[in-house]
Design a protein that fits this description.
Layout: E1 2-9, H1 15-24, E2 31-38, H2 48-56, E3 62-65, H3 76-86, E4 92-99, E5 104-105, E6 122-125, H4 126-129, H5 140-148, E7 155-165
Amino acid sequence: MKLHLLTAVTRPGNLAVIADSIAAASFPEWEVAWHLRFDPNRTDIGGQRLKNQMLDGIEDGWCWILDDDTTMHPHLLRKLTEVLTWEPTALALVVSQDRQDGRHLTAAEGNVRVGEIDAGQAIMRRDLIGDHRLPLDYEGDGHWLCELLPGKDGIVYLDETLSLHNALA
């Protein structure tokens, strides 16, 4: 299985730490492709345009937005594999997220609302995403997920913290 990690980079100094976290999370069933687009002048709000460019170049597999201040949880791929074992037709896995400010975003369909969900919580099959792209605004992640997830069969909500928001400076 293939997982595409999409990172819009404004803080290249974090890439080595993120790369180490990706290596630590490796799991035999998964081939991981890390897609990077650089925005050193921070001209792109939230990296949305860059994330969309990366999505345009991906045709298959699973996609996860891994921001450049976030590390990959060491159990993420193991947990995704477990979910796909008992739910092989899953289209997305939505996990809980802890934020540096102490907030906890719980993975639940009722929490798929702007301001209550982050793109880093959703690992989605590319065919679920289709032609949907992130709106070019700061809340683009939430608007995008509100289009893609609610009310659809095949979305698995796992209340386990496997996403760490703003884990790096």
